[in-house]
Amino acid sequence: MASFHLPLRSSMAALPVLLCVLSCFLPELAFAKTRHYTFNIRYQNVTRLCHTVKVLTVNRRLPGPPLVAREGDRVLIKVVNHVAENVTIHWHGVRQLRTGWADGPAYVTQCPIQTGQAYTYNFTLRGQRGTLLWHAHISWLRATIHGPIIILPRRNESYPFEKPHREVPIVFGEWFNVDPESVIQQALQTGGGPNVSDAYTINGLPGPLYNCSSNDTFKLKVKPGKTYLLRLINAALNDELFFSIANHSLTVVDADASYVKPFQTDVVLLSPGQTSNVLLKTNPNFTNATFFMAARPYATGQGTFDNSTTVGILHYGHSSTPIPATGIPSLLPNLPAINDTNFVFNFSRKLRSLANAKFPAKVPQTVDKKFFLTVGLGTAPCPNNATCQGPNGTKFAASINNVSFALPSTALLQAYFSRRANGVYRTDFPARPIFPFNYTGTPPNNTFVSNSTSLVVLPFNASVEVVLQGTSILGAESHPLHLHGFNFYIVGEGFGNFDPNKDPANFNLVDPVERNTAGVPAGGWVAFRFFADNPGVWFMHCHLDVHTSWGLRMAWIVLDGPKPNQKLPPPPADLPKC
User: Fold this and answer.
1) How far apart are CA 534 and CA 60, in angstroms?
2) Residue 17 has pLDDT above 80, yes or no
3) pLDDT of 14
4) In angstroms, rounded to a whole number, what is the distance separating the alpha carbons of residues 35 and 578?
5) What tens digit of pLDDT does each residue of 391-448 get?
6) Among 153, 158, 217, 389, which residue's beta carbon has the most beta carbons within 10 A?
7) Is tRNA processing set as a keyword in this record (predicted)?
8) β-strand pairing of 74-81 with 34-48
């Protein structure tokens, strides 16, 4: 690049002009910083419920350390693997514009980081502010390898709501008294459902309703008459969760790091991978009082699940109040019934984008590519000379359009970029079910799924509409689908079978919520739209990890655009090898 020099007086005179150029025309450079983190993956003995388990952690913390940055910042996280297991980290919800090499899902955008190796994830936080999460993205390692991503507004910019007195991350998780890897490996081997977790946790602590856990209880001390911003994150492996605080209401102001029109609620629902910022306004008349907060699952499927409740404490004042030895259930907040699908549906319909001049809702008004995708469970044949514990002696499976996605042994993005797709993946994923049936009615007799590594190819910047249709095969249940590399607008949802002739007339194309993870209603459908403006290979999967392990996953290829800034750059030099 050519360089030039000005005399000192001239350069000083030009400084205001230069600053104006930087701030007015290059706002991302005006106050942006480069932030460096090191994540050391290590074993750590952790005791919960009187069980000590050697778990995988980042920097020996559970949950892991928060990644804090501002919108527009560049972030470099060096991940060093000190354990025997292969590891990757996914920055869930980060758009990763032209930085797909840093997205993290194993065998999709990268090969895993092997023992003794390191990889630096390098990306810029563009056009996002709010709360997201990072987590491991290989097998079930994210059970303990996870933590918050906190994206603050640009410097000198404020929230579009009242400035909080304090901000508090609240991470929901699941605790197993055994190694979670042994749980999923046993399930895949037997073909049956996996053993469920032993507790839910709030910021790593299960709370007093569990054995040996009165001292392992999350406590939040507050002052009367103040506003607190709670950054809620569902990092649980396999469960959607209701959350509430007794005698307090919450104001939802954000979902998946996108601002929403504020609304009050007593209960928040979060699927795994979903996040939400809520405002808690403390009562000005409480000076020394204690209230319980609680989270428990929303579940509609036929399988077993962890039907327990994690409890934390909200305490007014400085002195610590002992947890009552008895009577805790009577002091808990009122949570919906475990299978209250109507509450879940009505809650999701309250979420609307701000859709104003500063935070517009850029919803595709027309559609170039339409996809109708069934999502649900199925079965796979039991291997010869084996006994399987799935339905009728088969193995549990899961699929999208009856395709159970098989991960390759090398990374899809590397195969795509190097034009070596042969033997790694195909591009014949069906845009609609090959064999239509009454999706939410009586299931078909044949529930076997097919297996392949088939991808969808999208032209750059195509407007895309996806309808995700739940099925009743092996029971209707909710499926939180997460799309990597994009936010999308949820334009419609409903129960029963989607009607392409009637339902689109009711789509919200004005202020639909913008998310990265959408819950497919139990026995219903959800429709979303997005622009394919991010070149690369992008994973989409159910965020109930057991369903992902069974094959409820797929990948999209978004082709390069014609301009230099619309193309996927080459991989970094330290990208792990398989």
Assistant:
1) 35
2) no
3) 42
4) 28
5) 999 999 999 999 999 999 999 999 999 999 999 999 999 999 999 999 999 999 999 9
6) 217
7) no
8) parallel
As a whole number, the mean pLDDT across the chain is 93
Query: Residue type for 569, please?
Result: P
Beta carbons within 8 Å of 383's beta carbon, 6+ residues apart: none
Q: Answer yes or no: are the C-beta atoms of 478 and 521 closer than 8 Å.
A: yes
Determine the pLDDT at residue 301.
83
Closest C-alpha among 165, 168, 253 to residue 219: 168
pLDDT in tens, 329-342: 778 999 999 999 99
Q: State the Cα–Cα distance between residues 20 and 197, nearest whole angstrom.
A: 55
CB contact set of 183 (below 8 Å; sequence gap of 6+):
140, 176, 194, 195
Element (H, E) at 345: helix 341-349
- All structural domains of the chain with their residue ranges: 29-158, 161-347, 369-558
Helix, strand, coil percentages for the chain (3-state, nearest 5): 15, 40, 50
Q: What is the CATH topology of the domain spanning 369-558?
A: Immunoglobulin-like (2.60.40)
> From CA 434, how far away is CA 153, in angstroms rounded?
46
Task: Report whether 84 contacts 224 (CB < 8 A).
Answer: no
**What residues pair up with 238 in beta bridges, in sequence order?**
none
CA angle 203, 207, 210 (to 5 degrees): 130
Strand, coil or helix: 418: coil
Of 444, 466, 453, 343, the C-alpha closest to 408 is: 453
Q: Is-same-fold flag (29-158; 369-558)?
A: yes
For residues 269 and 169, the answer to whether their CB atoms sit within 8 Å is no
Pairing of β 403-405 and β 450-452? parallel
Q: Contact 521/347 with Cβ under 8 angstroms?
A: no
Which of helix, strand or coil describes residue 415?
A: helix
Which pLDDT belongs to residue 329?
A: 75
Distance between CA atoms of residues 414 and 112, nearest Å: 13
Q: Collect all residues with Cβ–Cβ distance below 8 Å to 475 and sequence separation of at least 6.
A: 300, 301, 302, 303, 377
Give the total residue count for the chain: 578
Instruction: Find out whether 256 and 273 touch, Cβ atoms under 8 Å.
Output: no
The class that CATH gives domain 29-158 is: mainly beta
Query: Does residue 28 carry a pLDDT above 50?
Result: no
Q: Tell me the sheet residues that pair with 557.
A: 457, 537
Residue with tokens 């590519």: 369
Query: What CATH number is given for 161-347 in this structure?
Result: 2.60.40.420
